[in-house]
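Contributing new records

If you add data, match the layout below exactly. Sequence lines come first and carry their own label; structure lines follow with theirs. Keep one chain per record. Anything else will be rejected by the validation script.
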Amino acid sequence: MFEVTDATFERDVLGADLPIVLDFWAPWCGPCKAVEPVLEQLEAESRGRVEFARLNIDENPLTAARYDVLSIPTAIVFDGGEAKTSLSGARPRSHYERALAEVLPAA
């Protein structure tokens, strides 16, 4: 999972060749820490088909505000420079798998 900032968001996320799952988080957020291993597992299993990134909302408030991220954790799936789907709150793995299925072709 790579780090994204307000300054790199356009290039790293909107300009990406692959779909991106962007995790909006903060170091003090307990539920964010609970979601992190789930996202890391999905990243390992889908390598080469989707990328995973994270954005610290405390250090990068502009992108969070741009996408109306009002609570964390929030994960937004971007594809082709557009936000396709958003998941707010700590969710089970199956919720993230369904969100990814919308942008990934069937294997």
